[in-house]
Specification:
By secondary structure, the chain is an alpha/beta fold. The protein is 45% helix and 13% strand. The chain starts with 5 loop residues before the first helix and ends in a 12-residue tail after the last strand.
Length: 490
């Protein structure tokens, strides 16, 4: 049994959204987090499928259309989605392409907080070449305190109206701060002005409203957003209205009084008594093995800590970010060694006088060290598929005389990469050899068994290695140490 019932989730989540949009002529549903490729949810809820939300929306496909939002400042600054390493504007194009291929109707892209940023025009040209309508929204006059101005022709009325025809309009974005809420409210203003009973709701996966404040699922969300300085809290409005404790995050709670006033001024109704009321998330009802979920969450929090330390080491974030995550680890009484293969790898590093990559499979830690030809990750991968296939240690899957020409003739891009073959190159070599070697073919059949496994490495590996491991479905944990930092390397 997995920790999460994905089939149940698809059913109850779809039902909940249908119930909500049946209250209105149109529903603008702000979709927080990732519409697909939700790898965070997949990691902390074993059994959750990363494209579950998309699968659920496929059932509603005939009733919905999609508006994408992107902040003009994020375009200008070339903001990058960390897990994929691509810019927000590129991510919008990727999302649109994938959604169209699946048969979803993309209404348009809204560029928010526009203020003559120079790179925006170039992005609009790309959208037009892909037959995507674009709309420009500037800063809303009066926001956030002057509700009378906000809900007027000078405020939301100054934005162009986006014509929609479906009953359900998903409003999504490549990341936080993209203007989804403002776009929804602007549309509500125009719809009600035209006599359409349009409503708003929020589909935010985390934090989970009906789990406890200190549940590891919710703490894992805080770790994931440590750089945004978000934190979870009890929804005071829900507690006062219903005497029920629910969890929300600080920005939604802080903004609710303003949002409630705006919604009332637009719709002349007061259906939401709390931030929790606005949500439609049912993910908390589908956990079926608490112990497995808690274990997965603890590991995720530690991964986030190592990622933050890695970014701090490279000057990409402030020290406060890993410190905040460390406090969350302390609250759950866990340390870095909760990743069980870490101690083994660090000990091997000293014994072998080499960097180590390690993975734990079936209660056995398998390591790989740097060799004359292979990176630690490549060695670990070969050792792992040999173990899974029960191939003896003394048998070499790939002959050295096959690997040496690859290393000799490939383009050189860094000192480290000159010395050893990366995992992507080893995979190609194995694939070629498998055509004539049944043993390698059999070994490669075990790759799927590595999905969801943690790989711990004693140093910061190149981006190419990280991407390959992630493409294979593995989770990467790196000690915040540069390749040549330790004296033993010399």
């Amino acid at each position: 049994m997995t920790g999460f019932d994905n089939e149940k989730y698809l059913k109850v989540q779809s039902k909940k959204i249908k119930e909500r949009f049946n209250l209105f002529d149109k529903l603008y549903l702000e979709v927080g987090g990732k519409l697909f490729d939700d790898t965070h949810a997949e990691r902390i809820l074993p059994g959750f499928k990363k494209d579950s939300k998309l699968e659920m929306f496929k059932e509603l496909k005939d009733d919905l259309e999609i508006i994408m939002c992107i902040n003009a400042n994020d375009i200008e600054k070339n903001k990058v989605r960390g897990d994929l390493g691509i810019s927000y504007d590129t991510e919008v194009l990727r999302l649109i392409d994938n959604l169209r291929r699946l048969g979803f109707y993309i209404n348009s892209v809204v560029i928010t907080l526009y203020n003559n940023q120079s790179r925006v025009k170039e992005f609009i040209n790309k959208l037009e070449l892909n037959n995507v309508k674009t709309y420009i929204h500037t800063f809303t006059k009066g926001y956030p305190t002057d509700v009378d101005t906000i809900v007027s022709e000078e405020g939301y009325g100054a934005n162009p109206y986006i014509e929609t025809t479906k009953k359900l309009i998903l409003v999504n974005a490549p990341g936080p701060g993209s203007g989804k809420l403002a776009t929804c409210l602007s549309q509500l203003y125009h719809e009600h002005k035209n006599g359409v009973n349009a409503g708003y709701a929020k589909f935010e996966t985390f934090p989970v409203w009906n789990l406890s404040l200190k549940h590891p699922v919710n703490i894992a969300y805080e770790a994931a957003t440590a750089d945004l300085k978000d934190f979870n809290m009890i929804d005071p409005f829900h507690l006062e209205e219903y005497n029920i404790k629910t969890v929300n995050y600080n920005r939604d709670v802080e903004m609710f009084p303003v949002l409630k006033n705006i919604l009332y001024k637009i719709t002349k109704s007061d259906i939401y008594k709390s931030p929790t009321d606005m949500g439609v998330n049912m993910i908390g009802n589908c956990i079926n093995d608490e112990e497995k979920v808690i274990d997965a969450c603890k590991k995720e929090i530690i991964r986030r800590y190592f990622d933050a330390m890695h970014d701090y080491k490279l000057g990409k974030t402030d020290k406060e970010v890993p410190e905040r995550i460390k406090i969350l680890m302390n609250s759950l009484d866990i340390t870095e060694d909760y990743i069980s293969c870490r101690k083994v790898a660090l000990n091997k590093k000293i014994i072998k006088n080499s960097h180590i990559a390690a993975i734990k499979i079936k209660n056995k830690t398998i390591c790989g060290k740097e060799t004359e030809l292979l990176s630690p990750v490549s060695s670990m991968f070969i050792n792992t598929i040999k173990e899974l296939t029960k191939i003896p240690d003394d048998i070499k899957l790939i002959p050295e005389n096959f690997l040496k020409p690859i290393l000799k003739n490939r383009p050189k891009s860094s000192i480290e990469e000159e010395n050893t073959l990366q995992l992507s190159e080893v995979l190609i070599a194995l694939s070629i050899c498998s055509a004539t070697n049944p043993t390698i073919e059999k070994a490669l059949e075990n790759i799927d068994k590595l999905i969801g496994q943690d790989v711990y490495i004693t140093y910061i590996i190149p981006n190419g290695e990280i991407k390959t491991l992630r493409r294979l479905g593995m989770n990467v944990i790196m000690e915040p140490v540069m390749y040549s930092e330790d004296k033993f390397i010399y």
